[in-house]
Design a protein that fits this description.
Blueprint: E1 3-12, H1 19-37, E2 41-49, H2 53-61, H3 66-83, E3 90-93, H4 97-112, E4 116-126, E5 131-133, E6 150-159, H5 165-174, H6 182-192, E7 199-200, E8 202-204, E9 213-214, E10 217-222, H7 224-229, H8 231-234
Parallel strand pairs: 1-2, 2-3
Antiparallel strand pairs: 4-5, 4-6, 6-7, 8-10, 9-10
Helix pairs in contact: 2-3
């Protein structure tokens, strides 16, 4: 018997589920059922990504608080997944207290080790993508995906992502099955072989307050992707003492 951890993306709550989210979730559910059919042990996660500017703006348009908006939107996902009989083990929400505490614990640990540092930053910000771009990244004054951007200059906190560039390349090359299929492995390696800067992992509350507060600076919340991507780890015990 083998063990498999199967996940969908966790979906943004700025809109209701649609054919794209259903397609992805059904594909994951099919894989989950396939492994269970042959006696494998599986753990299937789906859920919602609830922090960040897009969620805050969607809540504002509805005249609701961000938390009330998220609580309402989550029910749409649960209802649809129940109707099409998605057999998930956990519906993960990034606003769950145990996840917020885990994210803050991770941030504090990285900060204590010197892996996170403050710096002044100037760049072009896409609200819809929640990503900063440099001038050279823009295409006709917009993001590479054609979205509107706004120039922003502010102090933020950065994770030393560039420090791990070569170590990641070495690990992937020495472990060819680490990323599958080969096309995706090559895609990741292609990205990692380009210049890799450090990652901005904060947003000032003065600009965007809907997020998990940085434990070492109360005037900032963490970047939504830093928060959201950790869900796949916190769901299975990362920074959870009772699951150690």
């Amino acid at each position: 018997m083998s063990r498999f951890y199967i996940t969908t993306p966790i979906y943004y709550v700025n809109d209701k589920p649609h054919i794209g989210t259903a397609f992805c979730t059904i594909a994951a559910d099919t894989l989950n059922r396939y492994h269970k059919l042959f006696g494998d042990e599986t753990y299937f996660l789906t859920g919602t990504d609830e922090h960040g500017q897009k969620a805050a703006q969607a809540a504002e348009k509805r005249g609701m608080t961000p938390q009330a908006h998220c609580d309402d939107m989550v029910q749409n996902y649960k209802k649809v997944w129940d109707e099409i009989e998605i057999d998930y083990d956990i519906f993960f929400r990034t606003t769950d207290d145990f996840h917020k505490k885990a994210v803050q614990s991770c941030l504090q640990e990285l900060f204590n080790k010197g892996e996170i540092y403050p710096n002044e930053y100037e760049g072009w910000y896409s609200v819809s993508e929640e990503i900063f771009y440099t001038e050279k990244d823009l295409v006709d004054g917009k993001s590479p995906q054609g979205r509107e951007v706004t120039k922003i200059k502010e102090k933020n906190y950065f994770f030393k992502m560039s420090k791990y560039q070569q170590a990641l390349i070495d690990h992937i090359e020495k472990n060819p099955k680490f990323i599958q299929p080969d096309s995706r492995r090559n895609e990741v390696l292609g990205f990692l072989r380009q210049p890799l800067g450090d990652l901005c992992i904060s947003r000032p509350k003065s600009r965007m307050s809907w997020g998990i507060e940085l434990p070492f600076d109360k005037d900032y919340v963490t970047y939504v992707w830093f928060d959201a991507l950790l869900n796949y780890a916190t769901a299975v015990g990362y920074q959870q003492p009772d699951k150690a």
